[in-house]
Amino acid sequence: MSKSIEAIDLDVYYGSFLAVEGVNIRIEPRTVTAFIGPSGCGKTTFLRTMNRMHEVLPNATVKGQLLLDAEDIYASGVDPVRVRSKVGMVFQRPNPFPTMSIRDNVLAGFRLNGIRMGKAQADEITERSLKGANLWNEVKDRLDKPGSGLSGGQQQRLCIARTIAVQPEVILMDEPCSALDPISTLAVEDLIGELKEHYTIVIVTHNMQQASRVSDKTAFFNIAGTGKPGKLIEFDYTDKIFSNPSVQSTEDYITGRFG
Amino acid sequence: MSAVATLQKSSLTAGRLPRWTPWAVGAGALAVSAGIMSLIGFNLPGWIVIAWLLFVPSMFVAARTVEGHQAGVDRFWTVLVCSAFVLALLPLVSVIVTLLVNGLPGLLDPGFLASTMQYATSQTDQAAAAGEGPVYGGILHALVGSVLVTLAATVISVPIGLFTSIYLVEYSQDGWLSRAITFFVDVMTGIPSIVAGLFGAALLFSLVDPQDSLMGFTAAVALSVLMIPVVVRSTVEMLRVVPNELREASYALGVRKWRTIVQVVIPTAISGIASGVTLAIARVIGETAPILVTAGVAVRLNTNLFNDWMMTLPVFIFRQLQNPTSPTAVGPSIERAWGAALVLVLLVMALNLAARLIARAFAPKQTGR
């Protein structure tokens, strides 16, 4: 498990509009990488290209290469659905399936794909995933209750459990804590630290303290103005970005001079 | 005014009419109206109308004098809005009462729900009208026909309507085709039902031997022309409110589009879809004209949708009133028509109730904390 990601001259378009331009980045396996930057700078757009989720929007296209352990996920003939089963995603707002129980939510990656399994195996996957998401002790007595009855923080950890149940190589997180209170945020951040041992994690965040707490490396994205494409400005070790960035605009952003 | 004065204990209740004022003014208006009516000859509608005409201005004047101008205007509009509500309720209640009063005797006739019109003849009706025998005949054939034709229409309409809605919401990406479909669905919603009936008749006329084209299935085709747009409209609304986040969550787990639609989108929207379908059924089960020109009329039980004419409840009602079984003794026919009308309304009510129960049963569970 756990693969590296490398983008080479990656441009992202919505129709003819160039949203993100010329991204070159290499993300090592078993690390946490944080994407920071002002709103509209293309962090989330770039994150969504990493599992081809941006294609769900009409007319979204990509130029350039995005390598998952040296395999280009944008090579012709690649099935986006298979890419997504290798690169999991956690969204901004917790989105457990309202029609499913907690157990079925965890097993959704299998159940929705019509994969049948015995009860023993299902129980094993449920327990392993919920333990992996630090949720097992809170829900083990009510696995058959609806997932929508949990608190926001528990729902988000349920979504993480659902993502790790299918054992992806990479986990993408799009502002996973922005809808959560500080205590739930802490729980999710602790979880990210544990997940790092097995997965490559990329997290988009607006919270710079969070980036400095959880990530090994940080990428700063910026935009020259409205209608201009977002660019990767600087990518380095988190310590360096937050103490001694090499680009002026990075320093301006992290010291709160704009954004 | 003295009543108001005694209430002025608190500064907050000062200048307020007591709670019983509207009732007192209403009773006064009724009394004065009764007085006027006794002079010109009493009748109930006149009594109520005059009382209302007295009540509105006196309530306004009372409130304006004691509570001020704005409060007076407020009372005035409250009275008007409440009156409109009562007025709107009046025909509804009246329909139900009339149906119960006129329909119950028919419904309680022996074998009304269990027999057909096959053995009810002009002679038996004349005997019944003369009080020499029971009212023979029943609505079994019409009830069975209504259920079968509507069921067949549902079987045709629901898949077409559901797939059309799925195309519009999940696949079309707002292209010209989807706008065209939406436009024509809107147009079809307003199509007169007799036109749908003629369409069904003409379609089957050209497809099968014209001699055999009048049958239950032809009526089902005509009804589905009316039903499909209703199903499409309600289903599209229901699919649109399914949050996009759920679709994305499913895609992000590596689930393909069709399975996402079948396993995530439709289960989330099923309660609304099911109640929409039920209401569409309730809408077409009362159609008369399209069935008259497609399935004809019958006095015998016919359970084969693909052969021979078939009776339904609305056509049965129309037929009993238009062509009474005994032209010289129409009483039993009218009794049967009212009975059938009552059964039809009960059927529609049951469907509406079922729609609510279905919506509640399928709704995503929110409890479990």
DSSP E strands of chain A, number: 10
Looking at the overall shape, the CATH architecture of chain A is: 3-Layer(aba) Sandwich
The helix/strand order of chain A is: EEEHEEHEHHHHHEHEHEEHH
SSE class of chain A:
alpha/beta
> What is the 3D form of chain B?
flat
Describe the structure.
Chain A contains eleven helices and ten strands. Chain A has 259 residues and is an alpha/beta fold. Chain A has a single domain, classed as P-loop containing nucleotide triphosphate hydrolases (Rossmann fold, 3-Layer(aba) Sandwich), CATH 3.40.50.300. Chain B folds into two domains: 18-103, no CATH class; 140-362, MetI-like (MetI-like fold, Orthogonal Bundle), CATH 1.10.3720. Chain B has 14 helices and no strands. Chain B has helices at residues 2-7, 21-40, 44-67, 69-107, 122-129, 140-171, 176-189, 193-207, 216-240, 244-252, 257-285, 289-292, 313-322, 331-362. Chain B starts with a helix and ends in a 7-residue tail after the last helix. The chains are: A alpha/beta (259), B mainly alpha (369). The interface between A and B is medium-sized, with 34 and 26 residues.
Keywords:
heterodimer, A: 259 residues, alpha/beta, Rossmann fold, ten-stranded mixed beta sheet, 10 strands, 34% helix, globular, B: 369 residues, mainly alpha, MetI-like fold, 14 helices, MetI-like (chain B), phosphate transmembrane transporter activity (chain B), transport (chain B), MetI-like_sf (chain B), Phosphate transport system permease protein PstA (chain B)
Question: Summed up, what is this model?
Answer:
Chain A has 259 residues and is an alpha/beta fold. In chain A, 34% of the residues lie in helices and 25% in strands.
